[in-house]
């Protein structure tokens, strides 16, 4: 809409000139001066070219609703079809002729089967002498963004409401059970869990808002991949111990990437925490790293519940959970993989997923290797590049776009 607002005065001035020239040209008795061979295009010609090539859909209407002039974009946007103006625009033009005010009209297609944009917004302004100008722009992207924003706000509100409501109910339960220390302890523990969940949710929302451009990302620096792996595993040690999960790690790689260390540790620990959370007790999770074709890969493989093919793209969307009850039971916020996706995207990389229900999953973080990285002993795409746990039972990870959605 802002672009449209900027375009309006310029286009109106332009069109007044063009329409004026048009009528002047028609009424004028004196012949137009013969063009000079080297004089270049006349002002009227330049205005005509500007009108026809404008990215805004432009149509000038007479007081009877005839299309006096229009450009190709007006046809693309559906303002003019087969020489006639969209009836919705004409209703507004008549009003503009009466009131002399500028008015907006929604010209979005009623039927979405054509190749027209999803949303078209137009402004109608009076051009005096009974003429009106319709200026239309494709607002599909703005409409899509607004709908994503609305969904996100609705999701966040819902996610916040649940633990806040639980805390209120549990606090009442504590008051009612004031004389029973066992019950007080039980309810207080639940309050603590819900508060932790709220805290995690807010922390992850802040992380996500930074990653999606609300704040400038820190400068990328040389980061040691082995350090990232060590720190991420240290963060996950408690969860692994409490589920009795063994984490198998390959040898140090000596690899470096250009990145933000904290963000990379967050992304990797999100993957490892998930691998632990969605595996049965006593299972093993493996973490491996390698350089393959100029890309540094860090893979996290589990032998847990796996993800059905129809959910594999969607798990990267904010708040998408295959099993909301399980995610809630493990303290998940539904934002972990969205954060991973954005961290990798901000590093010029990506995340891919191979998974099979009942067998397990491999999430692979891919980062561009800094220019001049030499191949390490693990610079190969062969099976030795991935630890045994990932290759004995699991086929090669198929690339799945982790970039879709959220
Ligand atoms: P959550 O906080 O719910 O774990 P995530 O964004 O980290 O949110 O993951 C989204 C969903 O993807 C999870 O709820 C779960 O259904 C699925 N998921 C993520 N990682 C795994 C995994 N390693 N194995 C199976 N399912 C997983």
TrEMBL record:
GO terms for cellular component: plasma membrane. Its cofactor is a divalent metal cation. One of its GO terms (molecular function) is phosphoprotein phosphatase activity. It catalyses: ATP + protein L-histidine = ADP + protein N-phospho-L-histidine. It comes from Pseudonocardia dioxanivorans (strain ATCC 55486 / DSM 44775 / JCM 13855 / CB1190). Residues 383-398 have a biased composition (Low complexity). This is Sensor-like histidine kinase SenX3. PROSITE patterns: HIS_KIN.
